[in-house]
C-alpha cells in the first residue's frame, strides 16, 4: 500500500489512514515469509501521494467512460434496423448476443463508477486525499445498544458470504492480493495469460490492420510489456516495495493502452513482483526471466519478417494490405484489378493464386474489355465485398466461377456498376448464394429483362437494386422478393401493372421507383392485405395517386419533384404524402455511384 511518510509529513496527514488500492500495494521483503504491514508499505511524499491519487481516479474515469461507451454502442446495435450494419463485421452471428455484451460492460462500468465517488467522499471527509477511511474508535461506537447491534448484524449477515468471498479473492491478503504469500505464483500465471491474449491480439491485428504505424505501435507495446518485467526486477530488485508498485503500475498502464487507447485510435478516423516462497528458487526465477524475454524477441522477429515479406510480395492494385506473421503470399486485403492499367482484357487464375486466400476481403475488377470471371475467385472464403466496374462480362457461366454459398460464406455485398452484358443476365449470380449476402446491386447496366425465378433463387436480403438501367418492365415475381429495399430507380418504366399481381399478406418495407418516367399507378395494389411501408416516387411523372396509396402505404409516399406535388396544394396533401426531401435520418441504401466512379477511375491503379 501507499502512505505518507511518518516523520516530517505527519502534520500533513496521518500515516495510518492513507492506504491505496490494490494496484499500488507493494511486495513484501524478500527475506520475510510473513511480512509485516511496514514490509508492504511504500511511503511517499505528499506531492507524489497526490499524484498517485489523481492517477488512480483518472484510471477509473478512463476505463469507466470507455466501458460506458461500449455498453451504449452494443445496446444501440441491438436495434433491428442496425442489423444490416452489424452483418458487415459479424456476418454469421449478427447482433443476437449484443444485449448480453452491453449488460456485461455496464456492470463493469458500475464497479468503476462506484469507486470514484467513494475516493472523493472519503478524501473530503478526512480533509486530505485518502484511499480508505481511517478507523476511529470513539465513545459513541463503544456505547452501542444491544438492540442496535443485533439489527446491524442481521442486516449485514445477508451479505457476509459475498463479503467473505470478495475478501478471500480481492483483498490485499486475498488470492489475487498483493500481500498474499502466493503473490508471485498468481502474478506469473496472470502475466502469461495476459501475454497470450495480447499476442493473439497482435497476431489478429497483423492480419486485419492495414495501418503500418498502428500495427507497429501495438507490437512495440507488447514488447515493452514482455521486457518491462525484466527491467523492473533488474533495476529495482533491492527495493521490494517500489518494485511491486512499479511492476503492477506499468502492467496496468500498458494494458489500458492496448485495450483502450489502441481500439480508440482505430475508431477515431471513422467511438513484476516476486513471492517470497518462489523468489528463493533462483533457477526458476531465471527461467521466468528468460522465457518472457525470449517471448518478446520472438514476437519482434515475427513482426520484422512480416514487414519484409509484405514488401517482397506487394501486388499492384492492392489498396490495403496486412502483415500476418505466418504467410509467404501477398496478404492483400483490398484488391482492385484494373485491366486497362495492366494492358490486359481479363485477369487469369495465376495472378489470383499469388494472393493469400485467407486475407482477401474485397475484390474488384475494373475496366476489363473482355472479362472472364476467373475460377480462382472461389479460393477466397473470407471474401466480403465483390465489385465489377465498367467491364464487358463475356464469361460468368455459373459453374466454376460463380458466387456460391460454399465458396464465399462471408460475402455480404455484391455490386456491378457500368457493366455490359452481351450474354444477358449473368448465370454466376443464379447459384445458391451465401446466407451472409445482404446486398446485390446493379447500376447503369444494359440489362433489359430479369429472370422470372429470382425469388426462388435468392434468399431474404437487405437490398436488391437494379438502378439506372434499361428496364421498361419487370416480372411480377420480382415484387415478392423478401428484401428490406427493392430499388428500380432510374429505369425506363412508364407503367407498372405488376403491382396488381402482388400476393396477399405480402409486405414490402420499401419500394423505390424514383426517376422513372412513370405516368400512372394501377387502380389497386394486390389484395387488401398487401402493404408497402414506404413508396418512393420522387422524380416521376405522376399527376394523381390512386386510393390505395393512402390505405395500403403504411408510412410514406415520397413525391418530391413530381407534377402531383406541383399541382396539389400543401394543405390538401394526404397525411402520408411527403413533397419535401427525405429526412437525413432515413436509412439511405441507394447505390453510391458518384463515390464508385471516383475510387475506380480509369487512371487510378
TrEMBL record:
SUPFAM superfamilies, alphabetized? L domain-like
Q: Which UniProt keywords apply?
A: Membrane, Transmembrane, Transmembrane helix
The residues that cross the membrane are 51-77, 97-114, 212-233, 245-267, 287-308
- This one is known as Uncharacterized protein
Q: In which organism is this protein found? A: Phytophthora sojae (strain P6497) (Soybean stem and root rot agent)
Q: Taxonomic lineage per UniProt?
A: Eukaryota, Sar, Stramenopiles, Oomycota, Peronosporomycetes
